């Protein structure tokens, strides 16, 4: 009897059954494929087998349970022409990772590990939160709990740490309905970082898309990832993965070979026309995945389906997502990848989020993804930053973004839920640093401060960096509250970056991708030091949840819905609605958003913005003289402002509503935002 049987060409990867383990790998130009097994204890090679069968372009074979089983370590050696000028880079000396590997080895060369998918999910069900009710929270698995005092020490920085009750309670207090995890698929650090004793902390350098990263596990990354998902689902929180399908860790023609390069280079990567020895670099990372090829699309769809069906995740955020839809003519909103994804039943209703740009020509495609997708809206971020730092002529931009960015997303029946509204993200300043630094301070990255964005639209409030000047500190705190309130109450989907609710700082580093240390890890002592801000965010979440004005999936239009009723009116501080000339007034930095008579059942809400350097006495709607008003919050104070100015202590953190009585004007201090209810 032969030591390896023909097995089956499907499914791809290593699949366990009573008959043993079936191995299958795609390679259209290989001449021979070897399957090599290794000792799990010391990494020594135990045996090599030629895969005995080929069906189409899939090489396959099956080993008996005596030779292979869950826990077996393996890799492929692929033979074929080594002709870079023809796009072929076969070299049987390379041990190659299976593109479908479910797990990688730990503490030894990168080899694949056979996995048994058995797991006790109990009654786990996807929370299935509607988009309109979603509040996203972007976090790094390690950085979030590495310094958390209530997480068991062994679990800090691990998948298991996210399931600890104290962690989940914090998320729930912020109204979070979904965590968006920075890459959790197996990745490696680039050589230039290792040479500097740094690492790729963010993880945007994938080597195995099916395999959860071992860095965040104690012993079993697959099982511990599932345990994390189960715990979060039990609390009603969805899990969204940041997926890196635009490039791999293999880099350009000078980069290493881990997997795809040595399996079928010209299939998996976009090569330069007329010079197949070089890679198209539409990602800034050396190579670009060739999503035009049917086998590449099959790999990606199979991977997404695996994470949903086997790992129970609820959605995906696609890094540099424009790459997924590129063909010979550039970005194509009807690309085959989009069709393939939507035709897969498992994926038809999961949450899909695009980072709608790459670095290639025509790569910025915000608003152009198909219906069913949501997109990171960087124009929302920039408009709010510019408005609150007192740039001139930004009232119109603020209103457009606050109303749901219909200029970007109203086509093809899309809704405000297509807009992921964010103020900060992993890439850039934290919210605290946005109000603390005019310039980036990336010296710790050892690139002479040349890396990272220069267009930050930040304002240090008068002093660069930390200060003990009480007036500057108070203004910075107010600015953070202004930004957070604007985001939570805008139409669209709010996304909070982990730690912004407690004024986390990266010391001015706006590109901390290589800082696996206290620059990036959340300092949980800030949660106590800035409790007023944490409670403020929790209050905003409740207001958003309880008032339909803030979470509907219709764009605000400012047009009459019926006689005497509008969905919203944009008010001038002197009274009345903004006119055409008012919108063009470059000096106007104050406006009101009046939900008026169409706000049942919650009453009439008025949101007042003042980004200017001067106080404003805002004239309330004309029929307000006999009305009694309540201030739900004012960012200029830890308590709602009283007309006599009493009890305005911003450190109190008491965000309970306060009666104002029948008033005709409301006093807004410089750089403040208030929500009134009549």
Feature tags:
single chain; about 675 residues; alpha+beta; Immunoglobulin-like; eight-stranded parallel β-barrel; six-stranded antiparallel beta sheet; about 20% helix; about 20% strand; elongated
The helix fraction, in percent, is 10-25%
Query: Which percent band covers the strand fraction?
Result: 15-25%
| Termini gap | 85 Å
Q: Look at the helices and sheets and give the structural class.
A: alpha+beta
Count of β-strands: 34
- State the shape: elongated
CATH class label of the domain at 560-677: Mainly Beta
**CATH topology group of the domain at 560-677:** Immunoglobulin-like
List the strand order in the largest sheet. Answer: 11-12-15-18-21-22-23-24
Give Rg in angstroms: 27 Å
Name the CATH superfamily assignment of the domain at 560-677. Answer: Golgi alpha-mannosidase II
Number of helices: 15
Mean pLDDT: 94
The description of the largest β-sheet is:
8 strands, parallel, barrel
Point out poorly predicted stretches. 639-652
The assigned CATH architecture of the domain at 560-677 is Sandwich
What's a concise summary of this model?
Helix content is 20%, strand content 22%. The protein has 678 residues and is α+β, with helices and mostly antiparallel strands.
Please provide a written account of the structure.
This protein is α+β, with helices and mostly antiparallel strands and 678 residues long. It has a domain at 560-677: Immunoglobulin-like. The chain is 20% helix and 22% strand. It contains 15 helices and 34 strands. The strands form 10 sheets. Strands 11-12-15-18-21-22-23-24 form an 8-stranded parallel beta barrel. A 6-stranded antiparallel β-sheet has the order 27-28-29-34-31-32, covered by helices on one side. The longest helix has 19 residues, at 470-488. 51% of the residues are buried.
